[in-house]
Specification:
Elements (H helix, E strand, L loop, with lengths): L12 E2 L2 H13 L1 H4 L23 H4 L3 H10 L3 H9 L2 H11 L12 H11 L1 H4 L24 H4 L3 H10 L18 H11 L6 E2 L5
Helix pairs in contact: 1-6, 4-6, 7-11, 10-11
Length: 210
């Protein structure tokens, strides 16, 4: 079965023009260390090395672009030294504008971008790239996978309910062959994927914190 490309999954928010440009620069210059969702878990980080900060954590999520720029310019990181000489001031601003979008939505302690990765790896084969329950493996199942574009928990933005169902597996009338992902997911992954699921029903524009 073909693996669904991450790019095939919809972004969990709409980017401003500045953020869209910043995303390109972030993926090129920052993703290796900070990871695709800014969690500090990029592929270039060695297992025993100090991890970069989680840019979705509260300490960063509450910062605007000017505050992030001040933190970036003061960073003693060697990789940041290289970036400070290779990026223009405008490019730095674009990247940091994108960083302000990484922690969307602000009403949930999860990262929709990080949840998009979890969804792609574990959920998309059954639930589909559009979250409509029409994934490439859905036809193999007796009970159709949940359609997140109309699911009651998603409509209500019931994060706790989504986490409980994902963690424990569906029960009762909604019983299916979906495993209890709590055996494999830690709390952060559960929050991240629940946060991403609500974007199938209520995508929102990101607002850069200037």
């Amino acid at each position: 079965m073909d693996v669904v490309a991450l790019e095939a999954l919809p972004l969990p928010f709409q980017l401003t023009v500045e953020q869209a440009s910043g995303r390109v620069a972030f993926d090129s210059a920052c993703r290796g260390c900070h990871g695709v969702a800014g969690r500090g878990n990029g592929p270039a980080i060695e297992e025993d090395a100090d991890r970069p900060p989680d840019l979705t954590a509260a300490a960063y999520a509450d910062m605007n672009v000017a505050q992030l720029r001040e933190r970036f310019l003061a960073s003693p990181s060697a990789s940041h030294d290289r970036l400070r000489t290779s990026l223009t001031d405008n490019e730095v601003r674009e990247v940091l504008s994108y960083v302000t979008a990484l922690s969307w939505p602000p009403d949930a302690p999860g990262s929709a971008l990080s949840g998009r990765e979890v969804y792609r790896e574990y959920c998309v084969s059954c639930h589909g790239a559009a979250g409509d329950g029409n994934g490439p493996a859905a036809w193999l199942l007796v009970t159709r996978p949940v359609d997140f574009s109309s699911d009651t928990l998603v409509v209500r933005r019931d994060f706790e309910g989504l986490i409980r169902r994902t963690r424990d597996g569906p029960e009762g009338a909604h019983a299916s062959s979906m495993p209890a992902w709590g055996l494999f997911f830690d709390d952060r992954m559960l929050w991240d994927v629940a946060t991403y699921l609500v974007t199938f029903q209520t995508p929102a524009s990101s607002r850069s914190r200037n």
